[in-house]
Amino acid sequence: MVKTWIKRWLYTTDHKDVGILYFVTSFYFAFLAALLALFMRTQLAVPNNKFLGAAEYNQAVTMHGLLMVFWFLSPLGIAFANYFIPPQIGAKDLAFPRLNALSYWLYAFGGLVTFIGFFSPGGAANAGWTNYSPLTSIQFSPNAGETLAAAGLIIVSASVTVGTINILTTILFHRAPGMTFMKMPMFTWFIFFTMLQMLWAFPSLLAGLIMLESDRILGTLFFTSVAGGSILWDNVFWFFGHPEVYVVLLPAIGAVMEIFQVFTNRTLYAKKIAVAAGFAIVTISFMIYGHHMFLTGINVTEQEVFTINTEAVSLPFGALMVIFIATMYRSAVKLATPMFFALGSLAIFVVGGLTGVFNSSLALDIAQRGTFFVVGHFHYVMVGASLFGLFGATYYWWPKMTGKMLSESLGKLHFIVSIIGFNLIFFPMFFLMDMPRRIVTYTADTGWGPLNLIASIGSYIFIFGHLIFLSNLVRSYARGPPAGPNPWHGTTLEWTSWKGGGPSPMGVGASSIGRPLLSSLSADPHNVKSSHGSIGPEIAHQHWSGRPIQLSLGLSIALAGLGFGFPIFVLGLVLLTWALVGWASDDLHDRFMVPDEPPGERWPFQTTTKLKLGMWAFISSEFTFFGVLLGSYAFVRYNFSYWPPPGSIHNIPVAGVNTIILLTSGLTMLLAVQSIKTGAIKHVRTLLGSTLALGVVFMIIKGSEWYDLLTGSPPFTPQTGLPGSTFFVITGIHGAHVIAGLVALVYLLVRTRNGWTPGKRATVEHFGLYWAFVDMVWVFVFPLLYLV
Amino acid sequence: MAFASVAEPAATYQSLFNLYLTFAIIAGTITIGSLILFPILYRKRGTAEEPEIGKKERGNLKVIGLVVVLMIATLSTTAYASFTVKDFYLRHPDCKTAICVQVEAFQWAWNFTYPNGKNVVGLLRVPQDTPIVLNVTSSDVFHSFSIQALRIKTDAIRGRYNVIWFNVPGTCPSYGKSGFCEYRIQCFELCGLGHAFMTGRLIVMPPSDFTNYISSGP
Amino acid sequence: MGYKLTPLGVWGYVVAVTIVQMLLVSYQSLSSSVLNPVIIVLAFSEAALIVMFGLQIWYEKPFIILAVASAFFTALAITLALGSITH
Questions:
Q1: Residues A389-446: tens digit of each pLDDT
Q2: A624 vs C74: CB contact, 8 Å cut-off?
Q3: In what order do the strands lie in the sheet with B119-121?
Q4: Final residue of a domain: which of A489, A518, A546?
Q5: Is the confidence at residue A539, as pLDDT, over 70?
Q6: Are residues B106 and B195 in the same domain?
Q7: How many domains are contained in chain C?
Q8: Same domain (yes/no): C66, C39
Q9: Does B82 contact A441 at a Cβ distance shorter than 8 Å?
Q10: Using CA atoms, how far apart are residues A251 and B7, in angstroms rounded to an integer?
Q11: Residues in B touching A63 (Cβ below 8 Å)
Q12: Is residue B133 domain-resident?
């Protein structure tokens, strides 16, 4: 029984289970990060305190930021997204269940890799969650902790990429008949916006992290050179970093919209404008990151553009505030705990947003940059708006997840204690504009003591509020009063899709093992038709897969090996290879069966397939990744006075011939795809084999090219200068993508040796997209690295 | 803040801050006020469940449109004011009228080099009522140089030179050990273990004292 | 047989452009400030064809939304970063 319980939680791919895994794990990391915060506040409570030394404090402030942003707030939003998006849109599960589990395990192990830094010599990462260069270089941060933190973030980027593709495909492709975009609940909409931001923001972080780890381990010069250096990292990191803070915020806003509608008994005022505002926020959020760089010396015109754009992002948020307030107008507001937290979240968000306007000014930032004013601002938006919104979401959706009610009185007490504690911590910070961030201590003559003491007292009160919350959750789960299927009288499908007494079958109950997926949906006010019937227990077992956790473990150990040494790296690679082979073998033998979702609303992608859409989303993310890499190359070249002229280092004719070889492999692949589409499948395997052969030749020539450069006289290596660093890293990553494609080709050839099915034909088409993309990247890499 | 009315660019800064603060307080009061008031005003009365949620979608664009227009007007004003202030910050005098000091940040102190080559760590002495121009860079990691009370700050980045300026009278709120006006210099970007201790002193003295100081050896 | 024309056409173009790009570089007397933009524009033209036909946008037009969005945000990143360099 216990063994089955363990197997269930390790191997599940069911969206509700994965949602619960995310939920529990995110609170676990929150607990760790909150402890770090408590240590920091204790240290800062009085001047010249000795509770933490500088080394410990720097680790605490860094890890607190990393864990809260990447391992708590965002994943908590994803927990709710996992659990509730499928029922909200009338789907059975997410589009790719195993990828969903993969997302979770990558996230969980990534967190461990980062956290383990505390136990490594030199301690955890200590250069701030923003990892500014060159402090993060191996010269100034020789400790393994920084390598491990970057490795953990790489793993999380992989998790997010997979998760983004999954949720986007689900929302675009798995809506039940009748569930048009405008009928989608606001929470689903705002998760959709969040996913769009993640899709194009995280690749920038990944590119930056790869360049950083390459600097630290291979000795490249991306961030240690003056031409690249601090400003390159600033651009690459903050292009990600600014959308990231909205990624943290938007799921909470979406949840608050749901809560508002239920607890005012009204539909959201001007719903279409709210959706438009969401699109505006997604777009504008990528245009404003320079407000983190006002004092770095970038040219004034760009600073002015960033000020205007940053101010502009407050317009959609202002519209949203009007929408919230107008929703309450002439309504019937029920002040239950979820509504308290929703209202609290918005009120705090107003303070956070307004102080953001102060920070948007390229002039005011001169005083505010690097001070506690900024710390106050972002905690108001992140902790206040996001966390309080997510607390509200917890109180709102707990009855559906567990079938139990939370205590209203404990909930209200939690709210009062939290809002008092929170404001005590962070409001004084707006009066600490003279105090720098991230300092371990300060002297009494600065006069910062009293306000810091108030803030620290507030932190203890705030933590006490969380203990109340925790006890509420535990009590309710253990012996809380049972909840009906729709205790709040919500109208979205997760509430109305099950009628009758007792806990919803979606709840975590004793019958969970092998329990059926969503039972049939019955009619609902939105006229969405039911799209599936019951699934028996035997199918649920076919939903288990050990591959996601194996793959995540392998990748995480391998990346941890970057900090712990080559043997660990190899061990991880072995495990990763075994998991990948196992996954491929599972697919070869059709061991993982997911019932197909019948077609519903798929506009505008009605004529395509789910896998093609997923592949396209993946390519979109990769496009940004390579774009940032090549953009970084352009950046350092533009910034560097000397660059070797074309032909002086590289052998252009050889590279040109190699380019033509790769392009020809693109031809054979495209011919294969066209053959599949027109039904002429006789020669497809030959074409696939030719693609493989040409790809192998490409890699062999590339390998010999590298060999000649590395052993030449003088040798041209990643460490000899920026031309070397950029060349080897960019062609190396491209080469890794080619190799991955070649491995996939081998798998395709194996898979199709016994004849063709529609699924196998489709796989060729999907691979064709990937291979065309790899070609396209090279079409830019070749001229940029060899010819200009 | 006593200095605000006399020291530049701090005074200009303060008036900009007050502009933003005024708008923020107005906007904040209205918004947060509504968030508190509306749930009370429109709370559910009675225990009967309403038959169903009002299905009719409400959406008067005019209200939202008005608020957005008001925001655009406000934000344009603040942006324009900010650009003006930034321009003021950037228009620094040249090294003939001002005293140009090279500032080099390193882990974990500040190295000041005067025009005559005199070199001091941690202590910057300047004459009062004279424009001072600082050319700031770093020799190692990313620091940020600030004399916060004067509302000037710039990032100290290796390979880059960022310029800031100020002009201080001799009267001020805080007289230091030197007997003259003193201001605190501090680093505002995490730069390693010594970040919290990367401070310095700005001492503002009468021009004659400064001349004596500057010519008294390396 | 007809279905082979498009792939061959695309292939012919990209190979030809590759050769042209290499010839342009070997033709030393053109200054690089003229040469480089030309080479880059040629590269974009190759990429456009590959995106249209290899990435199937020609055949499944809705994907153009994703293509345009990716290109937009990536171009934004590069422009803003390069714009931040003061020369």
A1: 999 999 999 999 988 999 999 999 999 999 999 999 999 999 999 999 999 999 999 9
A2: yes
A3: B119-121, B109-113, B99-106, B132-138, B162-166
A4: A489
A5: no
A6: yes
A7: 2
A8: no
A9: no
A10: 46
A11: none
A12: yes
3-class state of residue A74 by DSSP: helix
| Lowest mean pLDDT, pick from A367-371, A521-525, A623-627, B168-172 | A521-525
> Alpha-carbon distance A400 to A398, whole Å?
5
Own/partner long-range contacts of B8-11 (Cβ < 8 Å, ≥24 apart): B8/B166, B8/B167, B9/B85, B9/B88, B9/B89, B9/B150, B9/B151, B9/B152, B9/B165, B9/B166, B10/B149, B10/B150, B10/B151, B10/B152, B10/B166
Phi first, then psi: what are they for B199, rounded to 5°?
Answer: -110, 170
The reply to whether residue A666 touches residue C11, judged by beta carbons under 8 angstroms, is yes
Distance from CA of A70 to the nearest CA of C (A): 22
Strand-pair partners of B105: B110, B138
Residue B97 phi, psi dihedral angles, 5° rounding? -90, -30
> In chain C, whose CA is at the least distance from the CA of A664?
C11
- Helix A229-264 crosses helix A300-328 at what angle (to 10 degrees)? 10
- Give the amino acid at A330: R
Q: Please count the structural domains in chain A.
A: 3
Interface probe for B, chosen from A50, A234, A311 (most Cβ of B below 10 Å), is: A311
- Supply the CATH number for residue A693's domain: 1.20.120.80
Across the interface, which of B13, B58, B158 has its CB nearest the CB of A269? Answer: B58
Residues of chain A with C-beta less than 8 angstroms from the C-beta of B16: 361, 363-364
CA distance B122 to chain A (A): 17
**Can you read off the two tokens belonging to residue A622?**
């990769």
Please name the member of B146, B148, B155 whose beta carbon is closest to the beta carbon of A297.
Answer: B155
The amino acid at B194? G
A183 domain-assigned: yes
Q: Rounded to an integer, what distance in angstroms lies between the CA atom of residue B29 and that of residue A387?
A: 23
- Contact list in C for residue A663 (CB cut-off 8 A) is 11, 14-15, 18
Query: Does the beta-carbon distance from A287 to C55 stay under 8 Å?
Result: no
Say if residue C46 is in the same domain as residue C87: no
Residue B54: the pLDDT is 55
- The residue of chain C nearest to residue A242, with distances taken between CA atoms, is C77
Residues A338 and A484 both lie in one domain: yes
Same domain, B104 and B205: yes
Task: Give the nearest chain C residue to A655 (CA atoms).
Answer: C22
pTM, whole model, 2 decimals?
A: 0.93
Position of tokens 């730069």?
B191
Contact A785, A734 (CB under 8 A): no
Q: Which residues of A touch B38 (CB under 8 A)?
A: 325, 328-329, 333
* Pairing of the two strands B123-127 and B152-156: unpaired
- % of chain A exceeding 70 in pLDDT: 94
B86, B155, B188: residue with CB nearest A296: B155
Shortest Cα–Cα distance, A226 to chain B (Å): 5
Chain C partners within 8 Å of A667 (Cβ): 7-8, 10-11
Residue of C28, C40, C56, C82 for testing the chain A interface, max A β-carbons within 10 Å = C56
Geometric angle at alpha carbon A726, from A720 and A727, rounded to 5°: 85
Task: Please write the tens of the pLDDT for every residue from A115-133.
Answer: 999 999 989 999 999 999 9
- Domain with residue B185: its CATH number is 2.60.40.420
* CA angle A758–A763–A765, rounded 5-degree value: 100
Q: Rounded CA gap, B207 and B94, in Å?
A: 19
B57's tokens:
């979608």
Beta strands at B99-106 and B132-138: parallel, antiparallel or unpaired: parallel
**Residues B86 and B104 grouped into a single domain:** no
Edge to edge, the sheet with strand B143-147 lists: B123-127, B199-205, B181-187, B143-147, B152-156
Residue of A nearest to B71 (CA): A315
Residues of A in contact with C70 (CB under 8 A): 200, 619-621, 623-624
| Domain identity same for B35 and B136 | no
